[in-house]
Amino acid sequence: MVKSGKINCVIVKDLSRLGREYNETFTYLRKVFPALGVRFIAINDNIDTAKEAITNDLSISFKGVMNDEYCRDISIKTRTALNIKRKNGDYVGATPVYGYKKSEENNNRLVIDDYAASIVKDIFKMRIDGISADKIAAQLNDKGVLSPREYKKDNNIPLPRNGYCDKANSKWSATTIIRILKDEIYTGKLIQGKQGTPNYKIKELVKRSEDELFITENAHEAIISKHDFDLVQKLMQLDTRISPKTDRLHLFSGMLICGCCGNRMTRKTVAYKGNKYFYYYCPTGKKNGCKGENMVKEDDLTECVTESIQAYIKNVTSLQDVLSGIDSSAINAERCGRIKTQIAEIQKQLKKTADFKSTLYENFISGILDKDDYKALKATYSKDEQKLNDTIKTLESELDECVNNTSKKALWTEHFKQFENISELDRNIVVQLIVSIKIFDKTHLQITYNFEDEYEQALSVLEDMTEAV
Ligand SMILES: [Zn+2]
To answer: Of 49, 183, 302, 324, which sits with the fewest C-beta atoms within 10 Å of its C-beta?
Structure first.
């Protein structure tokens, strides 16, 4: 069109819109356009050949502008495409995390890799049992389990270029174990965009802030339950205070608190007549304001805690029995029933509105209503319908919640119930049930259990019920 004289001015947003390749574009600007008397304007680059001819001076800055524009363009485009995928909960990583593989039907979804997932489960289980990351790694290596990197190599899964991998010919290491234990992806949650380059010019990775992350719950099937995952995070926090050299943690490691000063208590070994005895004591000492009268023998403490746990589980179980009776018969069922009635009522109204709407048309045809009235009334009814439909949706999600509430309540009591018949304590039981133990003196201690909020809540429900009776 330029050549046939139909156009005498070309306007572009950016110079890069004219052409991607510098030499060709520059030929147009320097030769083709001037020869044909065409004015050229690039708005963002502030170029207008009517004001200023293209000189060689300008060409230098052109080159910069063009390359820049081109790179920026591509960078923005790939970025946007990736972000859309991330928002959809699509997995955009090149390599799936150990324990998962990419789905054959949908390359953007993760599915469980049975073998690797079983190893991940073992790792979490061992950690909950009190085995240190070092020892877990050693055990896996002893058993000849391939490290994530070697496993991927063995299965022709592409290896990541950086980050989630170990060195060549790698074995399991504490670092790998800890990375797996800390990865929320195993609970089904997909967190993407943790790191990224701020723009195409800066190649260094920066950590993104929370609101820049793309988080999708239940993006894929979980390997580890949320409860076990949280438990392990708690354990790892506790264990940072404990000597890293111990292979297996002691029964109460990191859990005992001095009732006098609030400090963590220390374990010590006392040898007496060829026997070894273990004690816990507060290291603060009298000088720093702790009476230190609460040194306890580990055996005594174990016996006392075992009895307390047994009694507590009995309480929880009987509480569950009472609550489950109330739950299904009274409170929850009553609420669910109420919501159901409300939904039925709205559905009735909806039906009425639909009936009105259909008679409206008949009235219009038979000449009772003129066109304007018909239109106005129809619009009103449609609006009503919309409102009623919205209300139904809200009520339905409330009903869902109400139904789920019953099962959620049961869950925490089930958690205690699984240890109903224990006779001896082990590290697993202690961390599953107990948050901390405060020791005041040899006979006086205070145990804080897991799910204390739920327990309190259950008790208050019970109280409400008794008052009502
Ligand atoms: Zn103390």
So the answer is: 324
The CA-CA-CA angle for residues 130, 136, 140, to 5°, reads 150
Ligand 1 centre distance from Cα of residue 288 (Å): 9
Per-residue confidence (pLDDT) for residue 400, from 0 to 100: 80
Q: How far is the CA of 285 from the centre of ligand 1 (A)?
A: 7
Give the Å distance between the CA of 365 and the centre of ligand 1.
90
Domain ranges of the chain: 9-87, 100-239, 251-469
State pLDDT tens for residues 164-185: 444 456 789 888 999 999 999 9
Run of H or E residues at 268: strand 266-272
Burial of residue 137 (number of CB atoms within 10 Å: 0-12, 13-18, 19+): buried
Percent of the chain with pLDDT over 90: 7
Q: What is the CATH number of domain 251-469?
A: 1.10.287
**Residues 392, 346 contacting (CB under 8 angstroms):** yes
Task: Classify strands 256-258 and 434-441 as parallel, antiparallel or unpaired.
Answer: parallel
* pLDDT at 247 (0 to 100): 52
What's the gap in Å between 310 CA and the centre of ligand 1?
28
Cβ 206 vs Cβ 194: under 8 Å: no
In angstroms, the CA 12 to CA 33 distance is 14
d(CA 29, CA 66): 13
Q: Is 155 helix (H, G, I), strand (E, B) or coil?
A: coil
**pLDDT for res 163:** 44
Q: pLDDT by residue (tens digit) across 244-291?
A: 455 556 888 888 999 888 888 888 888 888 888 889 988 887 777 787
Cα(363)–Cα(354) distance, integer angstroms = 14
With beta carbons less than 8 A apart as the criterion, state whether 39 and 10 touch: yes
Residues whose CB is less than 8 angstroms from the CB of residue 277 and which lie 6 or more positions away in sequence, other chains included:
269, 270, 271, 297, 298, 299
CA of 260 to the centre of ligand 1 (A): 5
pTM of the model: 0.47
Cβ atoms < 10 Å from Cβ of 23: 9
Nearest to 113 by CA among 125, 103, 123, 127: 103
